[in-house]
Amino acid sequence: MRWLDALARRAKAEPSVAERMTAAYEAAGRGDYAAAFEIWTPLAHAGVARAANNIGACFSEGMGVGRDAELAERWLTLAAEGGDPIGQRNLASLYFKGEGVAQDNARAVALYRAAAEQGDAPAQDMLSWMLLEGGGIDPDYVEARRWAEAAAAQDVAASMTRLGMIFHNALGVERDAVQAALWWRRAAARGDADGQAMLGAAYHLGAGLARDAVAAMVWLVRARDGGSPLAARFFEAVRGTLSSADLAEAERRAALPLEPVA
Fold first, then answer.
1. 154 within some domain
2. Among 44, 175, 197, 247, which residue carries the largest CB count within 10 Å?
3. What are phi and psi of 4, to 5 degrees?
4. Which tops the pLDDT comparison, 12 or 96?
5. pTM value?
């Protein structure tokens, strides 16, 4: 049985797929994508779907190799067909943007849904957005809310902001200013600039919570600094209601660290 002993020694000497994937991620973490690419390539050819996704991502972003949208699509298709949720999500992004493939929102939705059903939070978030906004497909407010709730349960702040908008605009639900404000507060506390802008607007208007001009300015300052275009709609109107002392207090509070909200 020497051949069995030799086979056992060989198996023991060769690193496992998990070990090789870990080594590749460590190389990528150091910025050495060329080394990571060399590890992922044979694994992808052997049918490891996540490795195929990573190669596709390298070609998509030009990490360790030249950017090539067609090769990105080829490898991401292999990953998606292999059932990898990140590969499905990344391939969906190509179809949504029309990079290396013909732009196809219906195909993007199908791929985002496949990834979302496997629990991929970014895919759940994007699927919710597409079902809400339409973008060439029929909107479905009930499904948009369901997937936003799933992503929010995984702490995706953008989906929390979207849920606030769903309740604010009565999209498939009864209008509920209190629920809208609660979702915006959760998103705002996690740093989502649009959620901060809408929470500031809610404080300004007294929608779903008590009117508070200083609190409104606190969140609008944070939203403005975070790059939300929504902040500009309310910023000057709120600032015009504040004394110089109140404005200074709002700016002081806006500079404080965010406090977590459940």
1. no
2. 197
3. -65, -40
4. 96
5. 0.90
